[in-house]
Design a protein that fits this description.
The complex is a heterotetramer.
Chain A: E1 10-19, E2 22-32, E3 37-41, H1 48-55, E4 63-68, E5 71-73, H2 77-80, E6 84-87, H3 99-110, H4 115-123, H5 139-151, E7 157-161, H6 169-181, E8 185-189, E9 202-207, E10 210-211
Parallel strand pairs in A: 3-8, 3-9, 6-7, 7-8
Antiparallel strand pairs in A: 1-2, 1-4, 4-5, 9-10
Chain B: H1 4-53
Chain C: H1 2-18, H2 22-39, H3 48-69, H4 73-77, H5 81-85, H6 91-121, H7 130-155, H8 161-186, H9 197-223
Helix pairs in contact in C: 1-6, 2-3, 2-6, 3-6, 3-7, 3-8, 6-7, 6-9, 7-8, 7-9, 8-9
The chains are: A alpha/beta, B mainly alpha, C mainly alpha, D mainly alpha.
């Protein structure tokens, strides 16, 4: 699967990240080849979210090295951001703005054409709900809006933090469709790794910030 | 014709400068005290280790 | 540039929908002016127009603090920072949009406050020249908005930010207000050749330039973690 | 524990010696060499300590801001300490300036504080900024974030110094009382006074550098002791 000449989609060597005195990530090393999907498992507070936020260039690594497509973070963060689709615990949308207005904002931030908005609304099964304020959408629909937001700029690397939570059967099918169609790499934190059977290429379990 | 008050004021200023410097030395002294306590702890730990090795 | 426009549109839309900030600021200004008016004594205003003009600026500073404390509230309360920070848009666009929005909100509030200032304070027909007052307010608001956007970003997820922000902001407001007050007070006829309006405007422009540069350059450090 | 045991150039002692010599020279000149000011009388001698301490305070703030800016560029945590210590010393020298300024104001103008005075007002603004710096620093847990935010605010503070000096000066037209030390045509003092002033200033700055180096040394020893303690405690 992994072509040697192309840099790995994600490479971490001894990645360490602290919150004040507490060590959230303790010398974690992993490699994800282009096109591969890695599942992150482990209990709450194991460091899954912290790792995803470092890869999403939101958190700076305190020690060790992190590289996405060969670009070292945090130096080349600006170069890699257009290629990253990040779905966090929160859908990262403004409740007072409508679904479409939120997507218009992110379309501008990612420099993407407005026609893409309708496509991702369709993709996430939100086509009828574009004009509803995000705050009035149900938990599951807001989670789908988060996925739509992350797919706006057709990212090559997907970073999903427990994407299945709150999704109904239809939502899960759409997520599966998105993942199957996704050519690039993905790092997915989840509490139900078995659901991703057939989609995953490897797993990494984290416990108290260490790769178990 | 020495202006008493002026001399007192000048003395106050220079005296104050010394007081602040001395206070600063006091702070440093307290800091060294803390270091000494840490050294004592380390010494105790090392002795304990030496005892357990012997 | 597109990111800046979209971010500014977002801030204005949020305020239009939420109506959380400007109405509160207007009510605050009215309340503060009334309070100050009563505080200065019933019929004859102690200190006359000069005191009134000076106190207008005190109310302006405290109202702007109100606006700054609520900056980035949406992003913080709904955890949206990760969305903005993982996007490729230049982070100083976030700062510029926030500063522009705050500047507009301050402008709207002061547009309400000025007529009230006339109503409450000016009896004997002598008032600071409107042009000087408007120019000073505009430039001061710009400086406050730019510096404020940076400081608001800084305290965005720090404990006790509602207390901390005014404390961090106040030292920077002092030179601004001292010049603005002086300039507008000296513009009250008969002009006895006090601080020329040009001198004052020059200083305010310098103030704005410095905090435009520092705000633009430092915002990146303030939002990253 | 970093294994660097190379003989570290003992700058702290060198600075301390220089400070002591300069201070002695300054005191000697202030009290025995320089003539009493004709117009202001004996109390003018406060000037030789008050103004150098004030200038040292500005020097410390600028130094803290420069190291803050360097921290923002290099992200080296030792720079955070080197930015914090000058700000911390700035408080000490700042308080001393305000108190000596008031004593002088009391003797020269009969009031403990005179708002019309630009120098005092400017200094108060900077001093308030310093207090705000510590308020910010104490409300964040130690770590890279606290260092970054403190550095940003310190750099902002440098912007404040010229602004408050110019701003308060522009705003105060009746500043005829505070003796202008330096105006357009250089120092309005005669030779011996200016020389004494320079020596006093050099002494004050060297003193602040000495205090800076001593505090850094203290912090370094603290860190290494904690590391040894962990080592000793770890295996016991």
């Amino acid at each position: 699967m992994s072509s040697p000449e192309r840099a790995p989609a994600v490479r971490c060597d001894g990645l360490t990240r602290r919150y004040g005195e507490r060590v959230a990530l303790d010398a974690v090393s992993l490699t994800v080849a282009p096109g591969e999907r890695l599942l992150l498992t482990g209990g709450n507070g194991a460091g899954k979210t912290t790792l995803l936020r470092v890869l999403a260039t939101v958190l700076r690594p305190h020690a060790g090295e992190v590289a996405i497509d060969g670009h070292v973070l945090p130096r080349d963060a600006r170069k890699v951001r257009p290629a990253i689709g990040y779905v966090g615990h929160e859908p990262l949308v403004y409740p007072a703005l409508t679904a479409r207005e939120n997507l218009e904002l992110y379309a501008a931030l990612y420099g993407v054409g407005r026609e893409r908005i309708e496509q991702v609304l369709e993709l996430a099964g939100l086509n009828g709900r574009g004009a509803d304020p995000a705050g009035e959408l149900s938990r599951g629909l807001r989670q789908r809006l988060g996925l739509a937001r992350a797919m706006l700029h057709s990212p090559s690397l997907l970073l999903l933090d427990e994407p299945t939570t709150g999704l109904d059967e239809d939502g899960r099918e759409r997520l599966r469709g998105v993942l199957a169609a996704h050519r690039g790499a993905a790092v997915i934190a989840t509490h139900e790794p078995d659901w991703f059977a057939g989609l995953e290429h490897g797993r990494l379990r984290l416990a108290a910030g260490k790769a178990a | 014709m020495i202006d008493e008050f002026a001399v007192k004021s000048v003395a106050a200023v220079y005296g104050l400068a010394w007081v602040v410097t001395l206070a600063y030395i006091g702070i440093l002294n307290a800091k060294m005290g803390r270091m000494e306590r840490q050294l004592d702890e380390i010494a105790a730990l090392m002795e304990h280790r030496a005892a357990s090795d012997a | 540039m597109r990111a800046y426009r979209a971010l500014l549109r977002k801030d204005l839309l949020l305020e239009l929908r939420g109506r959380e900030l400007v109405p509160a600021m207007v009510v605050f200004v009215v309340g503060a002016l009334v309070l100050v008016r009563l505080g200065l004594g019933g019929e004859r205003l102690a200190g006359g127009t000069r005191a009134a003009t000076g106190l207008l600026w005190v109310v302006v500073v405290f109202t702007s603090m109100l606006a700054l404390v609520r900056s980035f509230a949406q992003e913080r309360e709904h955890g949206i920072w990760d969305g903005l920070l993982s996007a490729p848009a230049d982070r100083s666009a976030i700062w510029a949009a926030r500063a522009s929005a705050t500047f507009l909100f301050l402008g709207v509030t002061q547009a309400v406050a000025l007529p009230l200032f006339w109503l409450f304070f000016l009896q004997d027909g002598r008032s600071p020249s409107l042009a000087v007052l408007a120019a000073a307010l505009a430039l001061a608001d710009l400086g406050v908005a730019m510096l404020g956007a940076l400081l608001a970003g800084l305290v965005s997820n720090v404990r006790a930010r509602e207390v901390l922000l005014p404390v961090l902001f106040l030292p920077f407001a002092l030179p601004l207000v001292s010049v603005a007050v002086r300039m507008t007070v000296d513009s009250i006829p008969p002009q006895n050749g006090g601080l020329g309006a040009l001198h004052g405007l020059g200083f305010l422009a310098l103030y704005d330039t410095i905090f435009a540069l520092l705000g633009w350059a430092l915002f990146e450090y303030v939002v990253e973690d | 524990m970093n294994g660097s045991h190379r003989a570290r150039p003992d700058r702290a002692t060198a600075a301390a010696t220089a400070a002591a010599l300069l201070m002695a020279l300054a005191l000697a000149m202030i009290f025995f060499y320089v003539p009493t000011d004709v117009s202001e009388g004996y109390s003018q001698r406060i000037f030789y300590f008050h103004v150098p301490i004030a200038l040292t305070t500005y020097f410390l703030f600028t130094w803290g801001a420069v190291n803050g800016a360097r921290f923002l560029l290099k992200r080296d945590m030792s720079l955070d300490l080197k930015s914090y210590v000058p700000m911390h010393l700035g408080v000490i020298f700042g308080s001393l300036t305000l108190v000596t300024g008031s004593i002088w104001a009391n003797i020269a103008w009969g009031t403990w504080w005179f708002w019309g005075d630009t120098q005092l007002t400017t200094f108060l603004i900077i001093f308030l900024f310093n207090c705000a710096y510590f308020m910010l620093r104490f409300s964040i847990e130690p770590g890279e974030r606290r260092a970054t935010f403190s550095a940003v605010y310190a750099v902002l503070g440098v912007g404040l110094i010229p602004l408050s000096v110019i701003g308060v000066h522009v705003a105060q037209t009746n500043d005829l009382i505070h003796p202008i030390t330096f105006n357009e045509n250089g120092a309005n003092m005669d030779g011996s006074m200016f020389l004494t002033f320079l020596v006093a200033l050099a002494a004050m700055i060297t003193l602040s550098v000495t205090m800076y180096l001593i505090e850094l040394r203290g912090k370094r020893i603290d860190d290494r002791l904690r590391a040894i303690r962990r080592l000793a405690g770890g295996e016991a």
